[in-house]
Amino acid sequence: MARHVVATVDQIPLDQRLLVQVNGREIGIFNVGGEYFAVGNRCPHEGASLCKGRIVGLVEATGPGDYQYSRRGELLRCPWHGWEFDLRTGRSWCEPDRTKVRSYDLKVEPGGALIEGELRAETFQVTIDKQYVVLEV
Question: Which PANTHER family match (predicted)?
């Protein structure tokens, strides 16, 4: 699995999103309360641009007139038919066992970690020998 640097954290403000393309796939990156999630941009129901949908929370009821609102900003609602998907898992809220949008692993890393990690240019030893610069390959 290849790593792709897709944005800086400044490009995705709190509770906002950014649509990126990686290897021909459109992927939505979401900043939910400082946590970052990534899901595919295609609704599995009929292919709508899922990342254009509203971000909502979860409304639960224990009985008539007793409602609780939780998980603010963690559900993504399809703009065409209102199907809702959990940004943490990609699972449909209506049919969690059958329907799921593709979710991707995402990390926020400091710039220094990228330099020390796999994204490093090949370097070569250079020495100066009297008047000649010698490159060792």
Answer: 3-PHENYLPROPIONATE_CINNAMIC ACID DIOXYGENASE FERREDOXIN SUBUNIT, FERREDOXIN-RELATED
Backbone phi, psi, residue 75, to 5°: -115, 135
Distance of CA 116 to the CA centre of its chain: 23
Picking from 42, 22, 39, 43, the residue whose alpha carbon sits closest to that of residue 30 is 39
The answer to whether 50 touches 65, Cβ cutoff 8 Å, is no
Contacts of 76 (CB under 8 A, 6+ apart): 28, 30, 39, 50, 51, 53, 54, 55, 56, 84, 85, 87, 101
Which residues pair with residue 100 across a beta bridge?
91
Closest CA relative to residue 7, chosen from 97, 85, 111, 135 = 111
- What are phi and psi for residue 101, nearest 5 degrees? -95, 145
Strand order of the β-sheet with 84-86 is 54-63, 66-77, 84-86
Backbone torsion region of residue 24, taken as left when φ is above 0, otherwise alpha when ψ lies between -120 and 50, otherwise beta: left
Report yes or no on whether pTM surpasses 0.70. Answer: yes
Residue with tokens 């509770």: 15
The pLDDT assigned to 116 comes to: 57
Q: What is the pLDDT of residues 54-77, one digit of tens each?
A: 999 999 999 999 999 999 999 999
